């Protein structure tokens, strides 16, 4: 039985949500990001893209390219709310789906053609999402993730493309190599230097040559260029989480120490999120007292992986839980409801300096260990236990894992 994989992507998601709240923005060039010229573009409308604007561009440069653009700071809470509304519709409609980011989904429709057309089901799902949420959405349908994702990109804005079985290579052939998922700028330049600009050229190359030029990544790119991809749709579950906790050798009421350790925990887990290109939408704090009574408190938040959002929320929850009259035996932090995504969702809150600071700190941690850069307040946390975000098993130390 041939697989049938659907890829769905909400078009210019942040912009589309803003237009729901203010229809005067429809048809206008929109920039969403930091409110100052030192900010960064988190998202932009197709009208702004026509001027050469793109996400992650300094806001000052974007306004130079498109001086008539309307600049909006952005509302992460609104974006999270509408993402969850779309997720609920997909959950009710398809038997197996994967949420890969705040605005992107896969669904496995394999075998459904025995009962009704998978393509018709995809079309009806798209219509329902548009009708119930007011958000434009595009989809691609084929027998694997790679081709479906590329098809979605070609379908945009607000359209759909089906690639029938056996037509994957002809569909991909005339497209730029930049359309292949996971082909970054560096790889693109390497291939350009070899005269490889179209996917068809890769299709005609021996896989051994691609491996010689790009190593294992070259083999992966060659397979994708030829429409080959066996990766499964991974069932989405909001139970996915990453957590850490600390049991004290001696119970304590030192609140300064407790807050310092919690800060270090939240900072470390935020780094783990960014390193894994993930975002969290739920923070939980756990406190166990000397009498072994254990209490937890959680809070839903807009998707983020930023220290300056997660650390204050962690400390806020601890302040609500903490009973000053009791000795504390254990404290812990968990980030859950994880989805794929990078810092881009925070770009409308942060300026370029903050983003560059995160990148610089994370680079040092990757090279020298996750405790090589710390906030002074959290230095009392000598060790931090971590748990794998998917199966709960403690992984090796990050420093060892990276070597």
TrEMBL record:
It comes from the Bacteria. This is DNA polymerase IV. CDD domains: PolY_Pol_IV_kappa. SUPFAM superfamilies: DNA/RNA polymerases (SSF56672), Lesion bypass DNA polymerase (Y-family), little finger domain (SSF100879). Residues 5-184 form the UmuC domain. Gene3D superfamilies: 3.30.70.270, 3.40.1170.60, 5' to 3' exonuclease, C-terminal subdomain (1.10.150.20), DNA polymerase, Y-family, little finger domain (3.30.1490.100). Mg(2+) binds at residues 9, 103. Belongs to the DNA polymerase type-Y family. It comes from Roseivirga spongicola. It is found in: Cytoplasm.
């Amino acid at each position: 039985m041939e697989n049938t994989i659907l890829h769905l992507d909400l078009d210019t998601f942040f912009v589309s949500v803003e237009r729901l709240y203010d229809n005067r923005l429809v048809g206008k060039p929109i920039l969403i990001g930091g409110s100052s010229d030192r900010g960064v573009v988190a998202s932009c409308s197709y009208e702004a893209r026509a001027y050469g604007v793109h996400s992650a561009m300094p806001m000052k440069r974007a306004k130079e390219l498109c001086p008539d653009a309307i600049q909006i700071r952005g509302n992460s809470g609104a974006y999270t709310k509408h993402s969850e509304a779309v997720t609920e519709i997909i959950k009710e409609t398809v038997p197996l789906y994967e949420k890969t980011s705040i605005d992107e989904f896969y669904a496995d429709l394999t075998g459904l053609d025995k009962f009704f057309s998978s393509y018709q089901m995809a079309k009806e799902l798209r219509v329902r999402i548009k009708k119930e949420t007011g958000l434009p959405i595009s989809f691609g349908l084929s027998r694997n993730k790679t081709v479906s994702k590329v098809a979605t990109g070609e379908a945009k804005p607000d359209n759909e493309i089906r690639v029938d079985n056996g037509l994957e290579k002809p569909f991909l052939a005339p497209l730029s190599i930049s359309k292949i998922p996971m082909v970054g700028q560096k790889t693109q330049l390497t291939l350009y230097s070899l005269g490889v600009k179209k996917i068809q050229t890769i299709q005609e190359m021996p896989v051994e040559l691609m491996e010689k030029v790009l190593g294992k990544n070259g083999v992966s790119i060659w397979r994708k260029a030829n429409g080959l991809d066996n990766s499964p749709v991974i069932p989405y579950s909001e139970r996915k989480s990453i957590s850490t906790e600390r049991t004290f050798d001696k119970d304590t009421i030192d609140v300064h120490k407790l807050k310092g350790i919690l800060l270090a925990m939240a900072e470390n887990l935020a780094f783990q999120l960014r390193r894994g290109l993930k975002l969290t939408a739920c923070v939980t704090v756990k406190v166990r007292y000397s009498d072994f009574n254990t209490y937890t408190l959680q809070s839903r938040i807009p998707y983020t992986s930023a220290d300056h959002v997660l650390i204050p929320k962690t400390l806020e929850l601890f302040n609500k839980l903490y009973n000053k009259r009791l000795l504390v035996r254990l404290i812990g932090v968990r980030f859950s409801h994880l989805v794929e995504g990078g810092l881009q969702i925070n770009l409308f809150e942060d300026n370029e300096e903050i983003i560059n600071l995160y990148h610089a700190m994370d680079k040092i941690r990757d090279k020298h260990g996750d405790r090589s850069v710390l906030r002074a307040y959290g230095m009392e946390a000598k060790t931090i236990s971590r748990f794998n975000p998917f199966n709960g098993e403690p992984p090796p130390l990050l420093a060892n894992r990276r070597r």
